[in-house]
Design a protein that fits this description.
single chain; transmembrane helix; transmembrane; membrane; 4 helices
Length: 95
């Protein structure tokens, strides 16, 4: 969502296409060549999804959005306590 709001749609689409190709390749290798079955095909999908997440993270971290993201700061933790309280109470209600 952050990359789409910054109009970095081309990178998102390239990463999605590469991710799809990698998923097909990994699934074919795991299921057909190695005969590992459906459970390991799901493992290849999980690996593929993590590669997508890391690709987006590295794009942002390495300067893909220089005008909007200036890096990590301690201001992100300024009003964190109300969020933690809400998370704990929501978790208690679900549990």
């Amino acid at each position: 969502m952050f990359l789409q709001s910054q109009s970095k749609n081309r990178f998102v689409s390239y990463l999605a296409a590469a991710s799809f190709g990698l998923h097909i390749l990994l699934s074919k290798i795991v299921v057909s060549k190695l005969a590992m079955g459906v459970a390991d095909a799901m493992g290849s999908m999980i690996l593929d999804l993590w590669i997508t997440v890391l690709g987006k993270f590295l794009f942002i971290l390495c300067g893909g959005c220089p005008d909007t993201w200036k890096g990590f700061s301690w201001m992100a933790f300024h009003d964190l306590w109300p969020v933690i309280r809400l998370s704990i109470s929501s978790g208690a209600m679900v549990w």
